[in-house]
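To illustrate the input format used throughout this study, we show a single complete record. The first block contains the structure-token representation of the backbone; no residue identities are included at this stage. The design step must infer an amino acid for every position from geometry alone.
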């Protein structure tokens, strides 16, 4: 083989090797991607805000997006847009911080591609103390309710089909949330998907001296619909919002929506009236 031929062969080999390395690098680049969060740049979080994730990878190539707080998975979304607490179309859930201790926390979104690769974005931000509950209102209350005239499932007052069996309801007010407990119709008490019996809701609220504002649910973990008593929400993931007056006389609490109407009719039906202190 001539010297010229040897030079050509060597040049060809270098070109082939360079092309292979470029292809490998390009392939690796195609498999990597980035994740971002709407919390990016935040230093102090408000009481309530949307927490959404986005990626540079197309949604059809994303298997799931995990939302972690202090390293623990608190929510998983499989479909875009990726919102903490769920994406119910135009009714998108909020991150409510009232259940977190005041101080700094680590908020992470981890997007996992269908190829197994992942991208992570982490923000460290401070959470403020939840409002103090007025002493007369704090604690646990109950009332017996006949729900035969409650707004029907699928009606404007009960659009998401909340099931409300007749019986004794309990409501508790603390700094984290308003905690509703539905009547139990099984023994031992468990979630009854056919009647709504045994269900538990936690709602976002802001208390004041003689009023309080309420919105949607407080999401703090993944719910398992088939087994969890604690899960669900009144009407929609984002509310609707309402304001109530409250007054306490002895062991009796009276609740009433301001203006005489709660935009979430089924919530208003259950809450409006007099309650007796349990603790």
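Output of the design step:
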């Amino acid at each position: 083989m001539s010297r010229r031929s040897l030079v050509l062969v060597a040049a060809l080999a270098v070109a082939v090797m360079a092309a292979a390395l470029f292809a490998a690098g390009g392939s690796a680049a195609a498999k990597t991607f980035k994740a971002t969060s709407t919390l990016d740049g935040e230093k102090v979080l408000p009481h309530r805000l949307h927490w959404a994730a986005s990626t540079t990878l197309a949604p059809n190539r994303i298997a799931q997006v995990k939302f972690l707080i202090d390293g623990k998975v608190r929510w998983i979304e499989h479909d875009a847009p990726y919102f903490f607490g769920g994406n119910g179309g135009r009714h998108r859930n909020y991150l409510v911080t009232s259940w977190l201790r005041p101080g700094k926390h680590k908020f992470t979104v981890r997007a996992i591609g269908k190829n197994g690769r992942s991208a992570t974005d982490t923000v460290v931000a401070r959470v403020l103390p939840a409002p103090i509950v007025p002493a007369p209102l704090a604690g646990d209350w109950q009332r017996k309710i006949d729900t035969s005239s409650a707004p029907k499932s699928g009606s404007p007052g009960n659009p998401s089909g909340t099931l409300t069996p007749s019986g004794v309801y309990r409501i508790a007010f603390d700094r984290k949330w308003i905690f509703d407990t539905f009547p139990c119709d099984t023994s031992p008490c468990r979630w009854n998907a056919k009647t709504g019996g045994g269900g538990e809701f936690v709602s976002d609220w802001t208390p004041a001296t003689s009023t309080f504002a309420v919105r949607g649910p407080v999401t703090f973990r993944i719910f398992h619909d088939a087994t969890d008593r604690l899960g669900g929400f009144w009407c929609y993931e984002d509310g609707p919002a309402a304001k109530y007056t409250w007054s306490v006389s002895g062991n009796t609490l009276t609740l009433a929506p301001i203006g005489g109407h709660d935009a979430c009719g089924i919530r208003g039906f259950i809450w409006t009236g007099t309650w007796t202190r349990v603790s």
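Structural context for interpreting the output: The two ends are 99 Å apart (CA to CA). The mean pLDDT is 89.
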